[in-house]
Write a structure and sequence with these properties.
By secondary structure, the chain is mainly alpha-helical. It contains 8 helices and 2 strands, in the order ββαααααααα. It has helices at residues 37-44, 50-58, 67-78, 96-118, 132-139, 144-148, 155-175, 179-190, and strands at residues 23-25, 33-35. Strands 1-2 form a two-stranded antiparallel sheet. A hairpin with a 7-residue loop joins strand 1 and strand 2. Helix 3 crosses helix 7 (155-175) and helix 3 packs across helix 8. The protein is globular. The chain starts with 22 loop residues before the first strand and ends with a helix.
Length: 191
């Protein structure tokens, strides 16, 4: 998880900030706890997959992507197939680079879920690539009727997912540690 124990309470390893810890324990004369940079990001993010989003930012999954690609990858956090059984959106990755980034995101998710389960916490839902091609085409300036022409998504599901995606992109535009990534997220939100 993204929580670290206070300094001096660990076994022989001592304190410090392990992994992507969100909290750093204080030493002599310091507060008992303080937020790390990733913890500060987490505190400013409002999303049901907040831990996973921060892990993805810290891992650089959004870095080096164009605005439409940032939108596509971010949609994995906002889209959730609502139908049970067959008939959902067919996963089509806009590029091999986005397919690889999504696979890395799935790896981060598996690690996070294992940590959450070990801590007996509710687990973060899995990212869903079903909206990536739609988000990419839409953020790249595609005509909405063309973007949705061959897709099996209701207008209501599109609007709900698009609103959530725009909200997340705006937050990424404020929180991304790499300035070019923040700019790309803001541009995608305005597309």
């Amino acid at each position: 998880l993204v929580v670290d124990e206070p300094r001096g309470r660990r076994g022989s390893g001592g304190g410090g900030n392990g992994g992507n810890g969100a909290i750093d324990g204080g030493g002599a004369g310091e507060p008992a706890w303080s937020l790390t940079t990733s913890g500060q990001r987490l505190a400013r993010l409002y999303h049901e997959c907040d831990l996973l989003v921060v892990e993805a930012l810290e891992d650089g999954l959004f870095d080096g992507l164009e605005p439409a690609e940032v939108a596509a990858l971010a949609s994995a956090f906002t889209y959730e197939e609502r139908r049970s059984g067959p008939g959902g959106l067919t996963v089509r990755y806009p590029s091999d680079r986005l397919r690889r980034r999504f696979l890395r995101l799935q790896g981060l998710h598996l690690s996070l879920v294992a940590d959450e389960a070990d801590a007996r916490l509710a687990v973060t839902r899995a990212p869903d690539a079903g909206f990536m091609s739609i988000a990419h085409a839409w953020a790249a300036g595609g005509d909405l009727s063309d973007v949705l022409a061959d897709e099996q998504i209701t207008a209501g599901d599109f609007v709900r997912t698009a609103k959530q995606l725009i909200d997340l992109l705006r937050q990424l535009g404020l929180l991304a540690p790499v300035p070019a990534t923040a700019t790309a997220a803001r541009q995608a939100a305005e597309a």
